[in-house]
Specification:
The protein is mostly helical. It contains four helices and no strands. About 0% of the residues are buried.
């Protein structure tokens, strides 16, 4: 039996994003970059560079970070669990915070 010819249009050649959005440097641009790279830092004119605006101190870094949670089953002494549960509804969150502090203190100590 003969293979059926496809009626769809031929597939276009896929291009990498670097081919679409990157323009190759000209020889003149390459020479200018080499000239600037040879200059000492004190001779580079930075007057057209944008001013760095200091970050306000009230910005919370990592405020919206949500780590991936994993459901586990562990055995904990009854009195330890009762103590954590006595802290309120978010006792599991508090247990996680205690474990994280311990983990971070051991990482720094090594």
């Amino acid at each position: 039996m003969a293979k059926k010819q496809s009626e769809s249009s031929p597939q276009e050649r896929r291009l990498h994003a670097s081919e679409l959005f990157t323009v190759p440097l000209t020889d003149k641009q390459r020479r200018e970059l080499k000239r600037l790279a040879a200059l000492p830092d004190s001779q580079i004119d930075l007057s057209d560079a944008p001013e760095i605006i200091p970050r306000p101190s009230d910005i919370e870094i990592g405020r919206f970070y949500r780590p991936v949670k994993q459901l586990v089953s562990i055995r904990v002494d009854a009195d330890v669990l009762a103590w954590y549960r006595g802290r309120g509804k978010k006792y599991q969150t508090y247990m996680n915070e205690v474990l994280r502090r311990e983990m971070q203190s051991n990482v720094r100590g090594q």
